[in-house]
């Protein structure tokens, strides 16, 4: 297991705990209940960012881009080293990107960096600790397996070498088998004993346990982050952090990367910025200096100033505050209303002397029961939120959701001649889903397969490809696994063990382990973060 994933299993947080204060809007801004905001202390606008860039030297000439960037984008830009800033300046001067595009890209990078800090440093709850112990146990079991199997193979190979040497002399195959038989029996017995010890140590197959543990922390961190509605923008206010999975921000960041603005140029500066963000319940952090091959990354503005003996950039702190988030309570109300609506319809049908027939091919009863539900309510039922819905109800909601997705795809490709358009439409449809649905395994599976199929089909036809972002950390992992498999675009969903898109045959995925992708082999995966892919090798 890689060291980077080990950080997820830490039971402590490296940052001091901060007290969350209730955010109050400034004049002219509208307060958004439950939203995390970038506070705007005195001097936090463009002028202070320009002062930070000057770093105490009045002779420094500022580019038009530097002067235009404010808020989070300005702070990240000021944190970058000179080469990174010069590269972004050139993008604007050459017309490859607009100032607005650069600002959105920097805000996306900032959002990813702060989100990564939140995921890694949030205080663990009891469930986290329990899963951490499972991960540690599985890792220990794998070490036992490697050590004991290595020794067992060495012993078997010694006997095999001697047996082959004897066979070269006597050419007696029966004697060869007789010499090998005891060693083969010992090896089989040793293997069985190793497997027993490994499963006892890990509490099951260590690969399965490790995969479930990784999936838990990926999903839990994403879910907790989304619950907090981290960085929701204030209408008309300072350019703060973006909403999770902001399409424009992701597209702008990906364009910058395509043009050459990679982690080499922003890793250190972005780390400085993220460490200075005051996250409620976590506080400010420290820049991790223990990174592989640090010489490959350009120095931050602070590091350049220190090397030149100049004062470091002085920027106002980014302080994030929050009110109590009503997201879960809101979804609980959706669940309650969905349950009440179904019960009311059942009661009405009973009074009419009608029994519900979920198997009716006309779908009349299902349409009557579920026809008035929006997507969020359907997800509440399909996912069996709070355990309040029957299997028939779940399957009906799942089927309707799949049908909606298929209808969106068919509308984009009515003649069935443009599969790329259909796959793209499917991605766009899923990206409009609620935050609760986006946190589900099923959403990430569907999103990953559709994006993979879209990109592969587009590459095969040579058409222009639209950057669709990553969707979620888990969707990114699954897409990487499909790429590792080299799955065919038409069979991508089957490659992970799902069924066809849309209609009655669509399998709703609630557990990664149910997918053949994870039953048949354990891929070398990656999770994209602010500084590039994070190894999740198991």
How is this structure best described in words?
Residues 24-44, 286-318 are annotated as: Disordered. Residues 295-305 have a biased composition (Basic and acidic residues). The model is unreliable at 1-45, 56-60, 230-238, 321-329, 499-505 and 520-538 (pLDDT under 50). Helices cover 58% and strands 3% of the residues. The chain is globular and about 85 Å long. The chain has 538 residues and is mostly helical. Helix 13 packs across helix 15 (375-382).
Can you lay out the helices and strands and say which pair or pack?
Elements: H1 3-6, E1 37-38, H2 46-54, H3 64-68, H4 71-79, H5 82-93, H6 99-121, H7 126-170, H8 173-202, H9 206-227, H10 247-258, H11 263-275, H12 301-307, E2 320-321, H13 327-351, H14 364-370, H15 375-382, H16 391-412, H17 419-431, H18 435-438, H19 441-461, H20 473-485, H21 492-495, H22 516-520, E3 525-529, E4 532-536
Helix pairs in contact: 2-4, 4-6, 4-11, 6-9, 6-10, 6-11, 7-8, 7-9, 13-15, 15-16, 16-17, 17-19, 19-20
SSE string, helix = H, strand = E?
A: HEHHHHHHHHHHHEHHHHHHHHHHEE
How far apart are the termini? Answer: 5 Å
Low-pLDDT runs: 1-45, 56-60, 230-238, 321-329, 499-505, 520-538
Number of helices: 22
Shape: globular
Secondary-structure content class: mainly alpha
Q: Which bin fits the share of residues in helices?
A: 55-70%
Radius of gyration: 28 Å
Task: Count all strands and give the number.
Answer: 4
Overall pLDDT metric: 77
Query: In this structure, how is the largest beta sheet organized?
Result: 2 strands, antiparallel
Task: Order the strands across the largest sheet as they lie in space.
Answer: 1-2
Strand fraction:
under 5%
Biased composition (Basic and acidic residues): 295-305
Region (Disordered): 24-44, 286-318
